[in-house]
Amino acid sequence: MPTTDPATEGRGSDATALLRAAALRVTAPRVAVIGVVRDHPHVDAGTVVGTTRERAGWISVQGVYDVLATLTDAGILRRVQPARSPARYEMELGDNHHHLACRTCGGLRDVPCPVGAAPCLAPGEAEGFVVDEAEVVFWGTCARCRDTAPH
Ligand SMILES: [Zn+2]
Ligand SMILES: [Zn+2]
C-alpha cells in the first residue's frame, strides 16, 4: 500500500495531517471542525456547531464541544476567552499573537506579538513563580464602532 497522500492541497488533507501529527484519530467531525475554525478565526462554539452541521451533517452540541476540547488539548486549536465573552477558537499558529477586543461589538482581531515568543511580558515581582505565557487582550473600541458611535 502506498503511504503517500496524493492530495497535498486543500483543507481536508491539512486537517488530516494536523490530526496525524498530534497522534489523534482522523474522524469526519474533527476534520470538519478544523475546517470551520480555519475559515472563521475567533469563532464561538455555537457558530462551530451550526457551520459544522451545514458542512458535515448532524452532530450533537456535546459532540462539537468534545471535539473542540480534544483539538485544543492537542495544540491544534487555541482557545481565547476575553472577559464576559464566550470562548472563541482559532488555529494554533504558535506565534503568541495577542488580541484587540472591542467593548462595543465584541469583535476580536489579531495583533502580532511584539516579541513573538512567550512569555513576552514579565511581572514586576514574580516571587519564584515561573511565568511561561502572558495572555494579552487590548480592550477598546474598533474603528467600525467608533465610526458609527453617536457624537
Ligand atoms: Zn466594535
Ligand atoms: Zn487570534
Average of pLDDT:
88
Query: Number of helical runs?
Result: 5
Radius of gyration: 18 Å
Q: How helix-rich are the residues, as a percent range?
A: 25-40%
Helix/strand structural class: alpha+beta
Can you identify the CATH superfamily of the largest domain?
A: Winged helix-like DNA-binding domain superfamily/Winged helix DNA-binding domain
Measured by DSSP, the beta-strand proportion falls in 15-25%
Describe this structure in words.
By secondary structure, the chain is an alpha+beta fold. The chain has two domains: 11-88, Winged helix-like DNA-binding domain superfamily/Winged helix DNA-binding domain (Arc Repressor Mutant, subunit A), CATH 1.10.10; 94-148, Dna Ligase, domain 1 (2-Layer Sandwich), CATH 3.30.1490. It has five helices and six strands; from the N terminus they run H-H-E-H-H-E-E-E-E-E-H. The protein has helices spanning 11-21, 28-39, 45-56, 61-73, 143-148, and strands spanning 43-44, 77-80, 88-91, 98-102, 108-111, 137-140. A three-stranded antiparallel β-sheet has the order 1-3-2. A three-stranded mixed β-sheet has the order 5-4-6, with no helix packed on it. Strand 4 (98-102) and strand 5 (108-111) form a beta hairpin. Helix 1 packs across helix 2, helix 2 packs across helix 3 (45-56) and helix 2 crosses helix 4 (61-73). It starts with 10 loop residues before the first helix and ends with a helix. Bound molecules: zinc ion (2 copies). One zinc ion binds at residues 41-42, 90, 97, 99, 110. One zinc ion is lined by residues 102, 104-105, 107, 142, 144-145.
